[in-house]
Amino acid sequence: MKVEEWVDICDQFDIDGLEFFSGFAPLDAHEKWKGYAKLVASRGRTIPMLCHSSDFTIPDAEGRKKEITREKAAIDIASELGATYCRVLTGQRRPEVAVEQGVAWVKEAILECMEYAAKSGIVLILENHYKDQTWSYPEFAQKRDIFLSVLSALPESPWFGVNYDPSNAVIAGEDPIVLLEAIKKRVVTMHASDRYFQGGTAEDLKKMDLHPSLGYASILQHGVIGKGLNDYDKIFSILKSVGFKGWVSIEDGPDPKTGIADIRDSAIFLRKKMKEYGLK
């Protein structure tokens, strides 16, 4: 689907904005990005964030430097789109990279990118991610203890926060509520998604994690938000307790046959729940 088609289809949903991904166009195609921004604005919506997948755990220093340059380019695009947020990731969980070394590399890279983002008024958001589609290995900070180590290494700043995704904690074989309780004060945006098991169990998922090069687990499927494994009453209750008022993005609708209806149902569910908990 072309980006223009996606924007058109989204007229069918009760949403306020459209989250963009840095893979929609080359990062140096500035006129194309500006065209997207005008198209979304013509629909009466905004672009709250640009999701980018940075890889700061590359052992080669030049490789990490290139990734920092790419993240800065994504920040520039976010600014051109009129976005407030730009996602940053830690990188891949390469077997040869020790945790302490990885955390040090990630800290150094994010601090440099944070300083750059502040100049454009862009907030960097670190997601508890699973795996970019182009990566060989899952996220370096996929597990809660490493994610918290990275987070604690970075100072509190108006130009940095967390993009919380409860389903990614499920994929990691961990409790999304436990993670949220630990990071709730630093969450500024959220990826709302839901998952359900199909042809497997949580124990099967843990066994699959023994193979670091596996991609997205086929036994854990995306579903309509509110109908899966995540407890949104608990999630929104915790977010309300810390005064969260940020954007909540819908991650749903991978099946072309039911995608539009699924996203519509997810939007209806989130509107109702967010209103119930005073988040919007």
Describe what this molecule looks like in 3D:
The chain is an alpha/beta fold. The protein has one domain (3-276): TIM Barrel (Alpha-Beta Barrel), CATH 3.20.20.150. Helices cover 43% and strands 12% of the residues. The protein has a seven-stranded parallel β-sheet with strand order 1-2-3-4-5-6-9. A two-stranded antiparallel sheet has the order 7-8. α2 links the parallel β1 and β2. α4 (99-119) packs across α5 (144-153). It is globular. The model is unreliable at 210-215 (pLDDT under 50).
In N-to-C order, the SSE pattern is HEHEHEHEHEHHEEHEHEH
Overall pLDDT confidence:
91
**What structural class results from the helix and strand content?**
alpha/beta
Given as residue ranges, the uncertain stretches (5+ residues, pLDDT < 50) are 210-215
Helix content: 40-55%
Strand order of the largest sheet: 1-2-3-4-5-6-9
Count of runs of 4 or more consecutive helical residues: 10
Largest sheet: 7 strands, parallel
| Number of DSSP-assigned strands | 9
Q: What is the CATH fold-level name?
A: TIM Barrel
Strand content: 5-15%
- The CATH superfamily name is Divalent-metal-dependent TIM barrel enzymes
Per CATH, the class reads Alpha Beta
* Shape field: globular
Our count of domains comes out at 1
Rg = 18 Å
How many angstroms separate the termini?
Answer: 30 Å
Would you identify the CATH architecture? Alpha-Beta Barrel
